[in-house]
Write a structure and sequence with these properties.
The chain is an alpha+beta fold and about 1600 residues long. Helix content is about 35%, strand content about 15%. It has 10 domains: about 60-150, no CATH class; about 270-320, no CATH class; about 330-450, Chondroitinase Ac, Chain A, domain 3 (Sandwich); about 465-640, 3-Layer(aba) Sandwich (Rossmann fold); about 650-715, no CATH class; about 725-810, no CATH class; about 820-1055 and about 1070-1085, no CATH class; about 1095-1155, no CATH class; and more. The chain is built from 59 helices and 36 strands. A hairpin with an 8-residue loop joins strand 25 (about 820-830) and strand 26. The longest helix is centred in the middle third of the chain and has 25 residues, at about 1020-1045.
Length: about 1600
């Protein structure tokens, strides 16, 4: 190369541009303005297009065929060449049609040479060979590699000898020879000389503009080297800031130390507190005498600043000489916020008060009117950086409205575990309006009005407590008196006990204790109620009455066979006075057992009342022993039963009235008594509401439900996780020690396994009421996504918070195992002024960085400790200067490491980093690389070889400063030198002597190798050994090469074969691949360290152990190493060829699997190629894709249905997709099933009825590589397309309707969906909710019933008004939940039949049946159900015409009807005939039987009352002239009433035993009246 210097490597980065003499187009990475190369000019016509035609002589062989090209990854743009390196698109930096940036990283350098050489013969290169034909010879070969290599090493023409100094500068300033790099022959090139001993080499002084012959160019008292390191001063200007003060006297950090004095003290001039102890450097130096470089001068555990604040002596470890160091003493310190009126007094080690914060509580949950009503002070949040033993919290309050401050006020703190504000024992100072309480931890505090607190939290205790799974089970022991006096009551006693057992639930248990003169357990606690009843049947009578023995035996039964998870109840029945009982009742109370006492005849009422009171039970005395069964039924209802329609363990009344939840506000929340899971989140209402809890203070009690979640919200805390997902939790796989992490990663790298055996697995749950359960800045949704512990700030226990690890790009599941990083910024060496001065000065600036905490830093020189800088922060820059003996030449000192920095973190991870070295530049480069794991053996071997090689050539190449400036160029030079050996063939002969040479080398250079070795021999012996062996191998190669070549390397570098050899070596050696990446780390102060731990992921994603092509893209979305392992597990267990998926699909699949959903992973493992293709082909939200996958895994959709559902989804527009996303999130598998099984018309009608509808489904769905889908033709006209009005339902109603429709089983078509949407739009708000409920419960019947019901108000001759239709729909909703009526579809069919036949009175009948609410509406609807059934049946008879039929015919009482035997009370004043046939009978319809349910109170009395109502109504019929009366009932007229009913009948019905007797009684009241009873199935036929 004409015009170059004697060395093969020219100094990079000159300031002055040379004259352009050539036509070099390539921009050299890392240099100043591009220079030219006179001897290498590419042909002007070469490679003017990026994708020219394929050459027929491509590399001397046939070009790749079309099938080979088809296998290539797709290009971003067809006008660009195919990627050669990964997915990176090559670029053309200068726009000449040639793609010099081969690897697409934005720079042109040696890495591109390596890339082209490795991929020269690849299909991708051959397919676009003209993009790389730099020489213009119409072929791409090694000549183009050589051209690119030389182009990346452009040399400035104004530095003839390449010593880093321009020729003019050498002639005019340094007076050196511009033609010779080392003018004085001292083995140091001119640019590296330091003539003025200021540690700045000449080329550095040239750049700075300082005088290379004077160590203080501007004469301000600061040497040039000092000023060059400081940003605030200029070495060429004595007063940089022109303030009239020379730089040496300036004090830029205002710490009372001038810059000069800072250099003397070793402190920083830009930091007023160098050691971070809270004291100014000047104060420490001039006043206190403490060490400004050491935060704790006396090593007592207290920083100097804290000691000054506490009044202890920072120079004496035990200031009061009591044998306890100052750091271990306990101090009381304070903190105050006058604005908030808060004062803290804290006790503990050190100045705790100084690290305490007092702030307003800004959590919205605490800033509500309810909290404001309770509080008499600001609500504040307290935090402390340090632990403390105790603290007194004093809060100022506003006394307005408080009558008695000392009794009414107290300090409260919010306890998240209790879920409520809890009171602290407080002292109120009414004079100063403050309240004080002691606490051992900080959270949220306020002064509350105790009464308002108790009023706010004022929940109603449930009839029966619930546990997490619903009702709290009850254990009942029936303590039955079997004494002789009970002989006449045995049957009643036993029946009464059985009545109680009948009220128990499946989760309950019953026991029986038989007592007379003694007691025994006749039946242990059992859920076999048949066995309990049998035991009761067998109880006899005889003996005395020992009540105490009976209770004691029952107590023992509970103690042995029950526990606190079950409520314990005794029922004591006795007719005698008996012995004992009081002390046994006290024992029962101590066991939390409640005793209900029942006495009759001669029972001791006072004793039984006392027993009940002691145990918080209830005393019952029965005057009529016949009432015993009823009393037991009532007790059963009170103790074991609740009116619970939905079976969720909460009474209907409780759900309607609402419960007071815990939390800051004490909110009242109502739930749906007809739905066990009001919000449909998969958790029952009772589980979400939680346990009833009471807290008492100062005579007042707060009561609330310590809720798990809000039962009306699917996602209580709004963190995008459903409450059910948070409760279900997830598994976390992690390492919790550095050793575990090392074993895990070593296993991964060795391909010996997946490393899972080295991971701990724990199960975790998050709090559904908090979006960030542990308040660590990582939401619960993120914690689930990353598979972290939501109740720990630091999942892997490495003292680096999860939040910080995520932000830094580290792995929060893998304990920190990487040693701290050391980045050397400047490493300068100063020779003494004369050989007589046997000392040299070393100046070192370096940065230590570790994400956990650095524990120690030791700077050593030749094994001797020179400095131990104070550890300040996780990342901090240190300036160290020291002097040492000058016993070696500059060449020897710089050719191998003489100074090391050893850094250890808190986990024992240690790194020894060489500071002064030429041979360690490769180590430094690799450590700064994102792609190289320096902890691998391959890296240790390669770095050792490179370092040894560089040591051999160090003094021949350039100074240490040149290496530090451009390490990549140094690497290139070494590689070039090796491969430019003319006598390369003879090298093998010389190497045959390697053993002898090697032994001699080891003896001579062992110390150098040890200093250069970055691996700690104790911590990493294998890596240390690998580096050592290869270090000497590198030195051997270097010595052999140097002995052969001399100075011929530079000219040989141009030859094609030599360049090819260089490229081969670069491409084939992992060492060079590691070193070359240093070009991407030009800024040493960057954030490279943040990615160190994430290398486990990047390394694994590049591993060859994933057998299928394309899998690496799937692994890319992994967030943690354990993510990567899980994803790899999944894709390796599929039958899917990842290469068959396009890159976007691969990334989507990876993103899907990175969500860490086990069900999704199972689904992917089960899918075939077509199914995976369909799942990943369509662009959609990851959660939506997960829902589809889960539906497949659960079996809700099969393969065809999944493909159909995805096809239909793909056909939707953006709004439709958003709508379906929400619908899928709410309904999960059901929505996916709906999309897969329904036809396109219906799908569109449900999902997007009023918006832009889907395009023809097959048009876009054709991208799916399967024909396994149902018909998805273009939808016909619908609401939005037919021109009809499109109803705009409220959002909540629309959501409810969609949710109901997707869950419909059976046929559903678009027309009926459109109709029902219109129908619902016509209803009022409550009726709209009822309609959607009806569709949800009744399916297609619900749809048709809603449509048919609203039709009743359509048209001028409509039978109902709109409001009456609303009532009917609401009534249907209520009635559909009942078990005793017909299906609402059957009822509506009968109504439609009657309407179509214009039967009179239908509207009145409907209104009477639907106009009530609650239980009444169910009763009335039951009547309407029977009426329309009977009237419809009558219409079906041939002998009855619709015109002759009238429903709901009204009858009014006439006073003339009264006789001696029938008074006004025997008639109904205003009644109706359910069905009146003109000229025929009058029908009374009773849609019931008269068999009462004995379990509810007054059942028999109510039945008797109902029968009497029927009597009076039939009397009214008879008196009004109806001589033929038909009563339609559900039972046979001759069936006998229950004895209890018969006893309850009175008046005219006294003695009646059946309905037939009732009819006879009516007939006897009127002459010629006939009463007939029919069953419902008999109406149509007679």
């Amino acid at each position: 190369m004409t015009g170059t210097g004697t060395g093969p490597l020219q100094t990079a980065g000159n300031d002055i541009s040379g004259t352009s003499t050539g036509n070099q187009a390539v921009t050299t990475a890392g240099n100043e303005p591009t220079q030219t190369q006179p001897t290498q000019t590419p042909a002007a016509t070469a490679g003017n297009q990026a994708t020219g035609p394929l050459s027929t002589s491509w590399n001397g062989s046939t070009e790749p065929n079309a099938s080979a090209i088809a296998e290539l990854a797709p290009r971003e743009n067809d006008s660009h060449p195919y990627p050669l390196v990964g997915d990176n698109q090559p670029t053309d930096p200068d726009g000449d049609g040639l793609y010099e940036d081969v690897n697409g990283d934005g720079a042109v350098n040696i890495v591109d040479v390596d890339a082209l050489s490795r991929h020269l013969e690849s299909t991708a290169a051959g397919a676009n060979w003209s993009a790389y034909d730099y020489t213009g010879d119409n072929r791409t070969d090694v000549g183009d590699i050589q051209w690119l290599f030389v182009a990346t090493r452009s040399t400035p023409s104004n530095d003839t000898d390449g010593d880093g100094l321009p020729d003019a500068y050498e002639r005019n300033v340094t007076k050196t020879d511009p033609r010779v790099a080392d003018s004085d022959g001292d083995a140091v090139i001119d640019g590296a000389e330091d003539w003025d001993n200021d540690t700045l080499p000449a080329y550095r002084e040239y750049r700075l503009g300082t005088d290379p012959q004077s160590n203080d160019t501007d004469g301000d008292g600061l040497t040039d080297d000092v000023e060059s390191r400081l940003q605030s001063v200029d070495p060429t200007d004595p007063d940089t800031d022109d303030d009239g003060v020379q730089d040496s006297a300036a004090d830029p950090d205002n710490d009372s130390l001038s810059i000069y004095n800072e250099t003397v003290a070793g402190t920083l001039s830009n930091d007023p507190d160098t050691d971070g102890d809270g004291l100014l450097d000047g104060t420490e130096v001039h006043q206190l005498g403490t060490d400004p470089l050491k935060a704790d001068t006396d090593n007592d555990g207290l920083p100097d600043g804290e000691e000054v604040r506490l009044g202890t002596d920072p120079l004496v470890a035990d200031s009061n000489d009591n044998g306890v160091s100052d750091g271990e003493e306990s101090y009381t310190t304070t903190a105050t916020n006058e604005t908030l009126g808060v004062t803290l007094s804290l006790t503990g080690n050190g100045d705790i008060g100084n690290g305490t914060t007092i702030a307003p509580q800004d959590d919205p949950r605490f800033n509500t009117s309810r909290v404001g009503n309770m509080s008499a002070s600001p609500v504040v949040e307290l935090n402390s950086e340090q632990e403390f033993s105790s603290a007194n919290v004093t809060l100022g309050y506003n006394e307005t409205g408080v009558e008695n401050e000392s009794q009414d006020l107290a300090v409260f703190t919010y306890d998240p575990e209790a879920g409520i504000f809890v009171p602290l024992n407080s002292t109120v100072d009414a004079t100063n309006n403050t309240a004080t309480a002691e606490t051992t931890h900080f959270s949220t505090f306020a002064v509350f009005d105790i009464s308002n607190w108790a009023t706010t939290y004022n929940a109603t205790e449930p009839v029966r407590q619930t546990d997490d799974d619903g009702l709290r089970p009850v254990d009942v022991t029936l303590v039955m008196d079997t004494s002789g006096s009970m002989s006449s009551s045995v049957k009643l006693r036993n029946t009464a006990g059985q009545r109680f057992v009948a009220g128990l639930l499946d989760v309950d248990r019953a026991a029986v204790v038989d007592f007379d003169s003694s007691a025994y357990v006749a039946q242990d606690l059992t859920s076999d109620f048949g066995a309990a009843n049998s035991t009761l049947d067998n109880l006899g009578s005889g003996g005395g009455t020992d009540i105490g023995s009976g209770l004691s035996t029952a107590n023992s039964q509970f103690a042995s066979n029950s526990n606190d998870s079950r409520a314990q109840v005794m029922i004591l029945l006795t007719d005698g006075r008996g012995n004992g009982g009081i002390s046994e009742a006290q024992t029962a109370a101590n066991q939390n057992t409640t005793v209900y006492t029942v006495g009759f005849d001669n029972a001791n009422r006072d004793k039984l009342r006392d027993i009940a009171n002691i145990t918080d039970g209830e005393f019952n005395y029965v005057t009529d022993r016949l009432e015993l069964p009823n009393v037991f039924s009532r007790i059963a209802e009170n103790t074991t039963e609740i009116n619970d329609t939905d079976g969720d363990g909460l009474s209907d009344e409780m759900e309607r009235e609402g419960v007071i939840l815990g939390g800051p506000n004490g909110d009242r929340v109502t739930t749906d008594p007809k739905s066990a899971d009001t919000d449909g989140d998969g958790l029952s209402d009772s589980r979400e509401i939680g346990q009833y809890t009471e807290v008492s203070y100062s005579g007042r009690t707060a009561s609330y439900y310590n809720h798990l979640a809000n039962p009306r919200q699917v996602d209580t805390d709004g963190d995008n996780l459903t409450d059910a997902e948070e409760v279900a939790g997830w598994e976390v796989q992690r390492t919790t020690s550095a050793d575990q992490s090392t074993e895990f990663t070593n296993t991964l790298y060795s391909s010996a396994g997946d490393g899972m055996g080295h991971l701990e697995t724990i199960s975790v749950q998050s709090d559904p009421t908090l979006s960030d359960s542990d308040s660590d800045g990582v939401t619960d949704a993120q914690e689930r996504r990353y598979r972290l512990d939501p109740h720990s700030h630091d999942t892997d226990n490495d003292s680096i918070s999860d939040h910080r690890e995520i932000v830094k790009g580290l792995d929060p599941t893998i304990h920190d195992f990487q040693p701290p990083e050391v980045t050397v910024f400047t490493a300068q060496f100063s020779k003494p002024n004369s050989w007589a001065d046997n000392r040299a000065t070393y100046s070192l600036t370096f940065q230590v960085d570790d994400p956990s905490a650095v524990q120690t830093i030791v700077v050593s020189h030749d094994g001797e400790t020179k400095a131990t800088p104070r550890v300040r922060e996780n990342q901090y820059t240190h300036l160290i200067e020291y002097r040492t003996g000058y016993v070696q030449s500059l060449e020897d000192d710089l050719s191998a490491a003489t100074t090391k920095i050893r850094v250890t973190d808190t986990h024992g991870n240690a790194r020894s980093s060489p500071a002064f070295t030429r041979s360690t530049i490769f180590v430094e480069g690799a450590q700064h690389s994102e792609a190289v794991d320096t902890n691998s053996r391959v890296a240790a071997q390669g770095l050792g070889f490179s370092s040894g090689l560089a040591t051999t050539f160090g003094s021949s190449i350039e100074s240490l400063q040149s290496f530090a400036k451009d390490p990549l160029r140094a690497i290139e030079a070494i590689s070039t030198l090796l491969d430019s050996i003319p006598g390369l063939d003879s090298l093998s002969n010389l190497l045959s002597q390697a053993p002898a040479v090697f032994d001699a080398m080891v003896q001579s250079y062992e110390d150098r190798q040890d200093r250069a070795n970055p691996y700690d021999q104790d911590a990493k012996p294998e890596l240390h050994k690998d580096f050592r062996a290869n270090y000497f191998a590198g030195m051997l190669w270097g010595e052999v090469a140097r002995s052969v070549t001399g100075s011929q390397a530079a000219s040989a570098a141009k030859r094609t074969q030599t360049a090819n050899t260089v490229a081969d070596r670069l491409g084939g050696t992992r060492v060079m691949r590691a070193a070359r990446t240093y070009s991407r780390a030009q800024d040493r102060a960057g954030e490279w360290r943040a990615r160190q731990q994430m290398r486990a992921i990047s390394q694994l994603s590049k591993a060859t152990t994933v057998p299928r092509s394309g899998a690496r893209r799937v692994l890319k979305p992994a967030r943690t190493a354990t993510d990567t392992v899980r994803i790899r597990h999944t894709i390796r267990r599929t039958d899917v060829d990842m290469a068959e998926l396009d890159p976007a699909q691969q990334r989507r699949l990876g993103t899907l699997l990175a969500e860490n959903d086990p069900a999704v992973a199972r689904a992917v493992r089960q899918m075939d190629q077509d199914e995976i293709d369909a799942l990943t082909r369509v662009e959609m939200d990851t959660r939506t894709r997960s829902d589809f996958a889960r539906a497949y895994e659960s079996g809700e959709v099969d393969s065809d249905e999944l493909t159909t559902a995805l096809t239909r989804y793909d056909s939707l527009d953006a709004d439709g997709k958003a709508e379906f996303d929400e619908m899928l999130a709410r309904n999960g598998d059901d929505a996916a099933d709906f999309a897969g099984r329904t036809d396109s018309d219906t799908f569109d009608a449900v999902v997007s009825p009023c918006g832009a509808r889907s395009a023809p489904s097959l048009g876009r769905a054709g991208s799916l590589r399967t024909d396994r889908y149902h018909s998805v033709a273009t939808p016909p006209s619908t609401l939005a397309q037919s021109g009809g009005s499109c109803p705009d339902l409220p959002d909540d109603v629309e959501d409810d309707l969609q949710d109901a429709l997707v869950n419909v089983d059976g046929d559903l078509d678009a027309d009926s969906v459109d109709d029902v949407r219109r129908s619902i739009n016509e209803l009022d708000g409550d009726a709209q909710d009822s309609a959607t409920n009806l569709i949800e419960s009744e399916g297609t019947d619900g749809v048709s019933v809603t449509n048919d019901a609203t039709d009743l108000s359509d048209g001028s001759d409509s039978v109902l008004t709109d409001g009456e239709v609303d009532d009917l729909v609401r009534a249907y909703d209520t009635y559909s939940d009942k078990s005793y009526g017909r299906d609402v579809r059957d009822i509506q069919d009968d109504i439609d039949d009657l309407d179509q036949n214009d039967v009179d009175g239908l509207d009145d009948a409907i209104n009477r049946g639907t106009s009530s609410s609650g239980d009444d509406i169910s009763s009335n609807m039951k009547g309407l159900d029977g009426e329309v059934e009977v009237n419809s049946d009558l219409l079906d008879r041939d002998d009855i015409d619709a015109n002759d039929l009238e429903m709901d015919k009204q009858i009014r009482e006439d006073s003339s009807w009264e006789t001696d035997s029938l008074q006004s009370s025997d008639y109904n004043s205003n009644t109706d005939i359910d069905s009146d046939i003109d000229g025929g009978p009058a029908y009374e319809v009773k849609n019931l039987d008269y068999e009462p349910f004995a379990e509810f109170p007054r059942a028999y009395e109510e039945t008797a009352d109902s029968l009497d109502d029927l009597r009076t109504k039939l009397n009214t019929f008879g008196a009004s002239g109806q001589d033929e009366i038909v009563v339609v009932v559900r039972q046979d007229a001759d069936t006998a009433f229950a004895p209890e009913v018969q006893r309850s009948l009175s008046g005219q019905l006294s003695g009646a035993e059946s309905l037939r007797d009732l009819g006879d009684q009516v007939e006897s009241n009127f002459n010629g009246v006939e009463v007939t009873f029919k069953r419902f199935n008999e109406v149509e036929t007679s």
